[in-house]
Amino acid sequence: MITFQFFGSDNYSKIVLGEFLKDKNFKLVKNNPDVGILASYGKILDKKTVNSIKAGIFNVHPSLLPKYRGPTPVQSAIINGETETGVTVFKLDEKIDHGPILGQKKEEIRKDDTSLSLYNRLFILGAQIIKESLENYLNGSIKLTPQDHKKAIFTIKKLDKENGFIDPGILSQILKGKKPDKKINFGLFASSGNIHNIIRGLYPWPCAWTMVKTNSNSNPKRLKLISSHLQNEKLFLDRVQLEGKKEVTFKQFKEGYPDFSFS
Fold first, then answer.
1. Has this prediction a pTM greater than 0.90?
2. Domain containing 23 — which CATH number?
C-alpha cells in the first residue's frame, strides 16, 4: 500500500482524489506519507513543503509537457485549435511545471470538447498514470525522464472575464458568413473556427461573451456565448445567456427578443 498526502483546491482535484480513495492500494494520510500527489492546486508550494516528503510530490498536469507549461493548458490547447493534447505526471522541483516526468498519456481533443469535458478526462488519465507507474518508481524499477526544456511552450496566462469578449460587430459578420480582416482576443484573426474555439476553450469559465441590445431603445447587455458549432465552416450559436436571465438556446433567445441587435 502507498500512503499519500493530497494537494488540491477545486472540482478537478476531486476527480483525481476520488480515483485514489476507491483504490485499495492507496491510502490518504496527513502525516509521514510515502509520496505527495498534487492536482489543480491553486497555490505554489514552498520549497520546505516540497522537500518534506522524501519520495517527492507528483503533479498531474493536463498537457504533454514541456508543451503548455502554466495555469491554462487545456484552455490554451483548445483556443489554439490543437487536435491532440494529453496529461503529464511529473515530480515537483523548484520551478513551475519543470520537473522530471513519471509518465504521459495522449488524448484526442474532440470537436465538441470544452475545457470542462477535456479537463475531466485528462485528470482521470493522470490518476491512471500514477496507479500504473508510481509503485515501480518507488521500488526503483523505473526512472524519471527529464523534460527537454528547450522545447518548453507556455500557456495563456491568468484568465479573466475580459479575455472572453467577442466584438459584437465582428461576431455579427461572422454569423452571416463573412470574413472580416480583423483580429480578436488572444491575437487570433476573426474567423468562424477561432471564435468557436474561444467559446469552447473558455467554458465553463470565464465564458466568451458579447454585447447586444434587446431592442432599439434598450441599453446594451452582456450575452454569454455558452456553446456553438461549425457547419460547412460557418459558425452557429447553440446556447446563450443574457445577463440576469437563464441560459437558453440561441433560437429561444431570438424568439424572445426578435428585435435584438449586436451592439
1. yes
2. 3.40.50.170
